[in-house]
Amino acid sequence: MSRKMLIDGEGNQTTEEQSHYDFDLFVIGAGSGGVRAARFSASYGAKVGICELPFHPISSEVIGGVGGTCVIRGCVPKKILVYGATFGGDLEDARNFGWDLNEKIEFNWKKLVHKKTEEISRLNGIYKRMLANAGVKLFEGEGKIVGSNHIEVTQLDGTKLSYSAKHILIATGSRAQRPPIPGQELGITSDEALSLEEFPKRAIVLGAGYIAVEFASIWRGMGATVDLFFRKELPLRGFDDEMRNVVARNLEARGINLHPKTNFSKLIKTDDGIKFITEHGEEFVADVVLFATGRAPNSKRLNLSAVGVETDEIGAIRVDEYSRTSVPSIWAIGDVTNRINLTPVALMEGTCFAKTVFGGQPSKPDYSHVPCAVFSIPPLSVVGLSEEHAIEQVNGELLIFTSTFNPMKNTISG
Amino acid sequence: MATSISFTTPKLTSSFSSSPILLQTLLFSRKLSASSLHFPASSPQTLGSGTHSLGRLRGLRCFTVRAESENGVEPYAPRHYDFDLFTIGAGSGGVRASRFAANFGATVAVCELPFSTISSDSSGGVGGTCVLRGCVPKKLLVYSSKYSHDFEESMGFGWKYDSEPKHDWSTLIANKNAELHRLTGIYKNILKNSGVTLLEGRGKIIDPHTVDVDGKRYSAKHILISVGGRPFIPEIPGREYAIDSDAALDLPSKPEKIAIIGGGYIALEFAGIFNGLKSEVHVFIRQKKVLRGFDEEVRDFVAEQMSLGGIEFHTEESPQAIHKLPDGLLSLRTTKGTVDGFSHVMFATGRQPNTKNLGLDSVGVKMSKNGAIEVDEFSQTSVPSIWAVGDVTDRVNLTPVALMEGGALAKTLFLNEPTKPDYGAIPSAVFSQPPIGQVGLTEEQAIQQYSDVDIFTANFRPLKATLSGLPDRIFMKLIVCAKTNKVLGLHMCGEDSPEIMQGFAVAIKAGLTKADFDSTVGIHPTAAEELVTMRTPTRKIRNGSSPEVCWESRAPSKSVS
């Protein structure tokens, strides 16, 4: 059954009506960006194939799952845990509103993790159905690029499938990294953190980004002792400095121990738990040590250099404004391109890709004024320039309006 | 009527301006006259010029000069008033107008009844309804009652309670009242810090420039009436057994079983409050649906969610009499029968402007049938020197609107910038459980006014509910003008609706289009991002007639993109 061949959105390419391809589009990676691009391209009439690694909450080079990081080990499970943790603080406030609660309210981590896993499995199923409903063919296995119009999928039983595609889209996302310190195998990343068997009564979190801050808030809200270590003066580098300070003070107010300007030296296993030693020789012991020190693009096993797709020094795939790589028939979107690593941005990039390549409307994603949130407890949300960036970029006077107040709910509950 | 009053040389002490005992007669003194202060008759006086110097003179009584022939006074005789502005009623509108006027250089006095949690002809309190008997205590009670839902929700997230949490009503009310006292004190400070003279007592208008406060008279160039409104209970047998919202916010004990009469926001909010605190709640409404005037789909959605929460609605059923039974409980006779066993019957059937006994009839201030003061676009009444803002004018009875009206009036009178309040795209919320947030037109209004509209809706289970197992859902609706793509209205019912709607109200006020919404990247994962990702219209209405139904754009659950 042959599908209509679609003409590229770009006018300067000659239509290759003579060549036959198995697919108009083959997508490697069925996460936020990949699924969006696949569905929308199919809705424009393209014949689309997509491959994805087998599902499991903990990712690896050969394990992933339809839905991707966001659905399986990112945004969604994170938010579920944040909800769970937020109740902790709320229950305290309830007393001042007249509620009589037991002194100690129990929290069952295992139950929450179990329900979380149920939900992400349900969503994984929904994403598979969405692809099927859009007429996209899904392959389970590891995808690899073997030519500018050829991909190879290694299935679970080892057999390889080869396909030709007019366009190839790389949407393989990124993965959490462990810092190369001695004992790093004793630590965990966010993948494991979302699926821990036992609740960490003492947790050490290393890192200053949103993932570190969110997990610190999560475990603290559930009653753990939490120590957060980071290299700079304040967490959340890149955000507005005043806001970074507010977040840091809020974390402290909730009982998280902050250790700024600390570099990490090593981890050692002890009978009492994992010992974490700082650069200055201070020692801390915890049940869990979480590395939240960064994520790296998943581009190593794609065979990119052989095909001529350029990457940068951290492995992010270089793309132009239309998400096209250095090879005209190969494109890339989402975290693997390391532009703005947010699901709605990957969705935007996927939509624009589909419009450009199959919808006849060349569309560049618009990166201005992208709002985002950090789900610390309490959360932070931003859109537009930080004060520092505004001062840098704006010619002329700036007016800064701030407001700091005790919200009504806290006036009665203290 | 202008009386001649003598005036002693003012001293520049702060006690001077705050002393209420300034009933001295003013003599026209040439030294302090206003030779430099001749203003033309027609425009509202401004003291804006040289406000800096006037600011320093705040402790000093300022003269204003008027050449008015209105009440028979000689046109060119300069007139002296105790105050540039005298405000009756220190609620949201009154305080705003007064302190802004003072900041613009006017001398201002405001009178207010003594504080009480229950309003009456002789009690009120600085801060007004909003702070003392409305918005603020209501919200505190909503917060308190919401916890029972949160406890249940938290169980789906791993929290476990040995025994069911119990609520103590008196702790809540005591803490609520402590907060009210704190706030009324803050409002008094706000007035004091602005240099406004605060008088405690009942104000009554004697003539277009004179106000009597408990026997003492003050003259003012302008008088502002901002006395607000009060709950209204209709005359039915057994009315004395019924309570209103004032009393409901200060009950000695929690109702066991309560009948709430009314279908407006106050009725629904209290229904949610008492239901959350585990009372048995019955709501009786005259109409078929609650919240007349709201978008139809929202009316249906909120009633359903509230029913699922345990509230029983009795529609098209009106009260006829209340009887007290031997056991002390109340029996409610309605148009459909009798329902027994209520510990309380609460009327939330409307509020009326507080315009009785203000002297309005004799001074000639026109009022509408329900007692609301009639004003023009600048909030001026039928008497040129008398103005009115807030609930007493029964325009849009919301605190932020009273603030807007008060602020506009201060500008008009004392900054020489005639300013009309803008009533377009005013957002509002109902703090029912779940709450509602809305801005702009309802679907019905949009169809009437624009004829060709596209309707986008979303009705989904939020992420929290997929884990808690509770029947909570969220409903959202975007109403778009098909011709211009402008978003005409936005409606949401579900958790956090009021907070979310505030941000989007800016977009509606700015006249943004659906394309602007669509080009805004979402924040993930949130409920709010649904509002910028509604791709397919649910229905299209053309020529104001029956909708062409598109397939429902609806995500099975929140997390799917």
TrEMBL record, chain A:
<feature type="domain" description="FAD/NAD(P)-binding">
    <location>
        <begin position="23"/>
        <end position="350"/>
    </location>
</feature>
<dbReference type="Pfam" id="PF07992">
    <property type="entry name" value="Pyr_redox_2"/>
</dbReference>
<dbReference type="InterPro" id="IPR016156">
    <property type="entry name" value="FAD/NAD-linked_Rdtase_dimer_sf"/>
</dbReference>
<dbReference type="GO" id="GO:0006749">
    <property type="term" value="P:glutathione metabolic process"/>
</dbReference>
<dbReference type="InterPro" id="IPR046952">
    <property type="entry name" value="GSHR/TRXR-like"/>
</dbReference>
<dbReference type="InterPro" id="IPR012999">
    <property type="entry name" value="Pyr_OxRdtase_I_AS"/>
</dbReference>
<keyword id="KW-0560">Oxidoreductase</keyword>
<comment type="similarity">
    <text>Belongs to the class-I pyridine nucleotide-disulfide oxidoreductase family.</text>
</comment>
<keyword id="KW-0676">Redox-active center</keyword>
<dbReference type="InterPro" id="IPR023753">
    <property type="entry name" value="FAD/NAD-binding_dom"/>
</dbReference>
<protein>
    <recommendedName>
        <fullName>glutathione-disulfide reductase</fullName>
        <ecNumber>1.8.1.7</ecNumber>
    </recommendedName>
</protein>
<keyword id="KW-0274">FAD</keyword>
<dbReference type="GO" id="GO:0005739">
    <property type="term" value="C:mitochondrion"/>
</dbReference>
<dbReference type="GO" id="GO:0004362">
    <property type="term" value="F:glutathione-disulfide reductase (NADPH) activity"/>
</dbReference>
<keyword id="KW-0285">Flavoprotein</keyword>
<comment type="subunit">
    <text>Homodimer.</text>
</comment>
<dbReference type="GO" id="GO:0045454">
    <property type="term" value="P:cell redox homeostasis"/>
</dbReference>
<dbReference type="InterPro" id="IPR036188">
    <property type="entry name" value="FAD/NAD-bd_sf"/>
</dbReference>
<keyword id="KW-1015">Disulfide bond</keyword>
<dbReference type="GO" id="GO:0034599">
    <property type="term" value="P:cellular response to oxidative stress"/>
</dbReference>
<dbReference type="GO" id="GO:0005829">
    <property type="term" value="C:cytosol"/>
</dbReference>
<dbReference type="GO" id="GO:0050660">
    <property type="term" value="F:flavin adenine dinucleotide binding"/>
</dbReference>
TrEMBL record, chain B:
<keyword id="KW-0274">FAD</keyword>
<dbReference type="InterPro" id="IPR016156">
    <property type="entry name" value="FAD/NAD-linked_Rdtase_dimer_sf"/>
</dbReference>
<dbReference type="Pfam" id="PF02852">
    <property type="entry name" value="Pyr_redox_dim"/>
</dbReference>
<dbReference type="GO" id="GO:0050661">
    <property type="term" value="F:NADP binding"/>
</dbReference>
<comment type="similarity">
    <text>Belongs to the class-I pyridine nucleotide-disulfide oxidoreductase family.</text>
</comment>
<dbReference type="GO" id="GO:0034599">
    <property type="term" value="P:cellular response to oxidative stress"/>
</dbReference>
<dbReference type="GO" id="GO:0004362">
    <property type="term" value="F:glutathione-disulfide reductase (NADPH) activity"/>
</dbReference>
<keyword id="KW-1015">Disulfide bond</keyword>
<keyword id="KW-0521">NADP</keyword>
<comment type="subunit">
    <text>Homodimer.</text>
</comment>
<dbReference type="InterPro" id="IPR006324">
    <property type="entry name" value="GSHR"/>
</dbReference>
<keyword id="KW-0676">Redox-active center</keyword>
<dbReference type="InterPro" id="IPR046952">
    <property type="entry name" value="GSHR/TRXR-like"/>
</dbReference>
<dbReference type="GO" id="GO:0005829">
    <property type="term" value="C:cytosol"/>
</dbReference>
<dbReference type="GO" id="GO:0050660">
    <property type="term" value="F:flavin adenine dinucleotide binding"/>
</dbReference>
<comment type="function">
    <text>Catalyzes the reduction of glutathione disulfide (GSSG) to reduced glutathione (GSH).</text>
</comment>
<dbReference type="GO" id="GO:0045454">
    <property type="term" value="P:cell redox homeostasis"/>
</dbReference>
<keyword id="KW-0560">Oxidoreductase</keyword>
<protein>
    <recommendedName>
        <fullName>Glutathione reductase</fullName>
        <ecNumber>1.8.1.7</ecNumber>
    </recommendedName>
</protein>
<dbReference type="InterPro" id="IPR004099">
    <property type="entry name" value="Pyr_nucl-diS_OxRdtase_dimer"/>
</dbReference>
<feature type="domain" description="Pyridine nucleotide-disulphide oxidoreductase dimerisation">
    <location>
        <begin position="426"/>
        <end position="534"/>
    </location>
</feature>
<keyword id="KW-0285">Flavoprotein</keyword>
